[in-house]
Amino acid sequence: MAADVAPQHVLRLDRVSFRRGSREVLREVTLDLRPGERLGLIGPSGAGKTTLLRLLAGLERPASGVVQPAVVPGERSADGIRVGLLFQDLGLFPHMRVRSNVAFPLLARSVPRDARRRRATEALVQAGIGDFADRFPGSLSGGERQRVAIVRTLLSEPSIVLLDEPFASLDPHLVGRFAEWLEDLRSRAEVCMVLVTHDVRLVMRWADRLAILVDGAVEQVGSPTELYARPRTAFVATFLGEANVVDAVVIEATGAGSVLCEVPALEGRSVRASVATDMAVGARCRLVIRPEHLAVGNAGEPGGLTCEVAGVGFAGRSADLLLTTGTGASLRTNAGPADLTRSTGEKVTVRWPPVQTHAVAP
Q: Within the chain, which residue ranges are assigned CATH 3.40.50.300?
């Protein structure tokens, strides 16, 4: 490859489908893995995430579509991409010491013994786990074994590292520190890393991009900020965090990225919302409003919707209020600490900014 032209992707899936028997596990998945990026692959159980990892690793063959390696304009495809894959069982050899486990990829490449030992020791020290070198995997905790397995994967010098639920065996209070350690290793190795996890909060902090998989298809791809702020579907909105979702009908379409909707649950009020794709007048949709974007005021304040407090919850620096509209619909809001003094049955006024209200397909 030409040194001065960087490939746009390390690996790309183009309309890839996969079947297991009569069941379609993946449906026309198109996804690119970019050099050095952190990609979070998330979705409900059974969405096809692990199968997608296996396809990226070359362990499965697609029923249709193409898995393409990196391409530089004007040059031919790279002859093979080295992929490191780490499943939940880690695959450490129990009869081998940690140093030998870490050095195993070098043995497979016929690296001389002394060089293997030196490089494995250096990798363990750089990862902050040099003290583990002469221990056996069985003497380590789950988190320590995870670290050893990741160091071994990186020592194989992959272009891509695929991690399937790497935090599953860790105590919750250790997950954040492990993620910081993992990012330090990834940034020094300058490797693309794909992470499958059910820990949505963590992956939103960690990833450069998220790909949300639902029923074998990609629902939406983008930065965590983009997906949280501008979800394309109600599922994406609620999967990434709490959201108020109400049915609506488009009564005015400007064609400039916004619509005006009539919302029966909000006493038939007209609400302006942003849209990711054009919607026609008369179309049914759903409005997504995050709890933190609802502003709560005292009863009788002009310009707002009158609601009744149905519940108050303590959430550290904020109060979680459950509100009921005049039509019986429920709204949740993250209000300020002062709202902890509100009581059940109290009347309040609620407002929301149009820029933070989004219309999505029903």
A: 11-229
CB 161 within 8 Å of CB 10: no
Q: Which long-range contacts (CB under 8 A, 24 or more apart) does 100-103 make?
A: 101/137, 101/148, 101/152, 102/148, 102/151, 102/152, 102/155, 103/155
CATH number of 234-360: 2.40.50.140
Tokens of 256: 């400039």
Global pTM reads: 0.82
pLDDT tens per residue, range 299-356 = 888 878 999 999 988 877 778 899 999 899 999 998 877 787 888 999 999 988 877 8
Q: State the Cα–Cα distance between residues 288 and 244, nearest whole angstrom.
A: 6
Q: Using one digit for the tens of pLDDT, what is the confidence trace for 100-141?
A: 999 998 888 888 899 999 999 988 888 788 888 999 988 988
CATH assignment, 11-229? 3.40.50.300
- The number of helices, as runs of H, and strands, as runs of E, in the chain is 8, 19
